[in-house]
Design brief:
Strand order of the largest sheet: 1-2
Largest sheet: 2 strands, antiparallel
Mean pLDDT: 79
Strand content: under 5%
Distance between the termini: 74 Å
């Protein structure tokens, strides 16, 4: 009953005309930021943070939150249409979403992404409202050992993202780990692998890496098609192709539930974020699928699961920020700054001392999800029409926005040069049939794996037993061993299958 009263208080705050207007403004800005490659919510929120000085605290937070989850929502649009992930969390959406677009089913892919985000966002909002304090306590149980074991499980799961050989997937993860350690060591302050280039002192930029490996590489792959009137898809675009079929909804239901659960779990853990949740969700869907070979060729679950995970993680990441005062990522750190600007101290007492703000913000998440659905579903037809634009116009325009977006993050032409370099590397990987997605996962998780491994050893005075003496960490270690066994068995089966095929061909 108390929860019902609190939600009613929240909706009475969120449904005021002023707060509705700021929620709509945040959702529109977030969607535009997500669609434009490379810009992202962090610089946008940083630029708009001073505006919260003159806004009521609730209105300012609602607008900034709308920008955050709106950007995640819009990031899938360009990922599906032109293989340009607007947000790094949309990288895995490229794998199957862009293939669906090439098969003339971009509308269905966009609709499933929108519906998946809406479903996961609503469920995560309910979890946030009902279980914020208990879930925050769960986050306290994760120390460096648990984080390291969990990240290792994520890296092994990332190896399964490769279409073919698992060995190639592992190799790409290792390359990503090596790229992730470029820059300044967070523990000692020592410069590593910068080769005398000052711009590498802060490490490689994930935006440049993602845009290069996927967007520019895809452009180079299709550069021979620019001369004529070739398009992304030659399939006829009709109203039927713009909506998901009954089979798509049925096929996506399990992926939506699993993606929501994964995203909600990773969202409450500081430092993980929607990018990791989306990768883990994709790997999970590929493992539980009856026909894993469909993934990478237009599997609808490869869109539904990661998009649901991204949305759920975005919503539940507010739990440690508001309940514990622990920001899980740069966006949450900016949100924490917005609270402090108004003299509000995040923590367990926030929902009591500032009940109208706490519950009003939670209710605004549901309002924002509805607004995003109403904004994006009518635009599907317009987005799909982009696929009818010839390559010679579409790809140069996309590259222009990539360069502008990457440059705007640090105002540095070096990042634009890195996009070009990573684009050439991505094209080489595609030609050699290596998947770039595991590389990006290794790059994201690499610094966190190293940092938590070293912290755990410092706490245990160098005793490796800390990783198996703690129950949660032991559970992740057992899962890692099981996944390695599955990878080995899978590789042996593939090898036997190839040998049997060779023998059949030779006998014929």
């Amino acid at each position: 009953m108390e929860l019902f009263d609190n939600l009613m208080l929240g909706f009475s705050v969120a449904f005021t005309p002023e707060n509705l207007a700021y929620a709509l403004l945040g959702c529109i800005l977030g969607t535009l930021i997500g669609v434009l490659p490379g810009i992202g919510p962090v610089p946008t929120i940083a630029m708009l943070l001073p505006i919260t000085y003159v806004l009521p605290p609730v209105a300012g937070l609602i607008m900034l939150a709308g920008i955050y989850y709106g950007a995640q929502y819009g990031g899938s649009t360009t990922a599906i249409l032109v293989a340009l992930p607007g947000e790094t969390s949309a990288v895995v959406t490229v794998l199957d979403g862009h293939q669906m677009a090439r098969n003339g089913r971009a509308g269905a892919a966009l609709a499933i992404a929108a519906l998946g985000s809406f479903f996961a966002g609503c469920v995560a909002t309910l979890l946030l409202a009902a279980f914020a304090p208990p879930l925050a306590e769960v986050a306290f149980k994760f120390g460096p050992a648990e984080y390291f074991s969990m990240m290792m499980l994520g890296l092994l799961a990332g190896a399964t993202l490769a279409k073919g050989s698992a060995i190639k997937g592992v190799a790409m993860v290792v390359v990503g780990l090596l790229l992730g350690v470029v820059g300044t060591d967070v523990n000692t302050g020592t410069m590593r692998f910068h080769f005398g280039i000052l711009e590498l002192s802060d490490g490689l930029q994930i935006v440049a890496l993602a845009m290069g490996l996927f967007g520019v590489a895809d452009f180079l792959k299709n550069i021979n098609r620019i001369g004529g009137d070739a398009k992304v898809t030659t399939a006829k675009i009709s109203m039927k192709s713009m909506r998901p079929e009954a089979g798509d909804i049925k096929q996506s239901r399990g992926a939506l539930v699993r993606g929501t659960a994964i995203g909600a779990a990773f969202g409450i853990l500081p430092g993980t974020g929607p990018t990791i949740a989306s990768f883990i969700s994709y790997a999970t869907e590929k493992k539980v699928a009856r026909e894993p070979r469909r993934f990478g060729r237009g599997a609808i679950e490869g869109i539904a699961g990661p998009e649901a995970a991204t949305s759920a993680s975005t919503q539940t990441s507010f739990i440690p920020t508001m309940s514990l005062g622990i920001p899980g990522d740069p966006v949450m750190a900016l949100m924490l700054g917005a609270l402090i600007i108004h003299g509000i101290q995040p923590g367990p007492q926030m929902m009591v001392e500032h009940a109208d703000m706490f519950w009003g913000l939670i209710a605004s998440f549901w309002v924002g999800n509805v607004l995003l659905l109403l904004l994006n579903l009518p635009l599907i037809g317009m987005w799909v029409r982009l696929l009818t634009v010839p390559f010679r116009y579409l790809f140069p325009a996309a590259l222009f926005f990539v360069c502008v977006g990457v440059y705007s993050t640090n105002n540095n032409l070096f990042d634009v040069a890195m996009v070009t370099l990573f684009g050439a590397a991505g094209y080489a990987l595609i030609r050699m049939r290596f998947e770039p997605a595991p590389l990006l996962l290794g790059f994201v998780l690499g610094p966190m794996v190293e940092e938590n491994f070293r912290r755990a050893l410092l706490l245990s005075r160098g005793d490796l037993a800390i990783f198996v003496s703690r129950p949660i960490s032991l559970g992740f270690v057992v899962a890692c061993v099981a996944l390695i066994a599955l990878l080995v068995v899978s590789a042996m089966r593939q090898r036997k299958g190839r040998e049997a095929l060779k023998q059949a061909e030779s006998s014929a």
